[in-house]
């Protein structure tokens, strides 16, 4: 496993009021692939450059009458270990020898919601971890393909890149070069 460093890197809090996003941090609930909470409290953070790119994405989405709903952002390495222990498949969970870009504060999982607050249909739920979750999975209905492409366009225009296997996952280009940030000892990141 790549050793995390205790970091003073600035993780910026992301809130509904400060960023105009909807936040539903599923790892602080049982509505995730493990079926149990991983965090004791919901707390959304991103590294400063990722937070700046998120602000751009929020503005682009708003121009289309949409809002971003965030499912996960910074994730302590210890939480990544919980996910790996549950599903040790590097197709969907970052291999611990490389570390997750979530644990670098440079990745975000999200979707789009319309003006009524309803999530756009992306064909699968967040954390589905199936072949249907791949960005360009053939055979999905046109409206699903269109919704995924809209999210992809917004996030790419804001400076993020994607990984092929998860329509919801975006990260800063070159994020793998950043150090892992171990802030799990801070209050909000106490694991269950």
Automatic annotation (TrEMBL):
Cofactor note: Binds 1 zinc ion per subunit.
Enzyme Commission numbers on file: 3.4.13.22
Record site feature (Transition state stabilizer), residues: 75
Binding residue positions for Zn(2+): 102, 109, 169
GO MF assignments: D-Ala-D-Ala dipeptidase activity; metallopeptidase activity; zinc ion binding
InterPro entries: A_A_dipeptidase, Zn_M74/Hedgehog-like
Signal peptide: none
Catalytic residues of the enzyme: 166
Family membership: Belongs to the peptidase M15D family.
Physiological role: Catalyzes hydrolysis of the D-alanyl-D-alanine dipeptide.
Protein name: D-alanyl-D-alanine dipeptidase
Species this protein is from: Paraburkholderia solisilvae
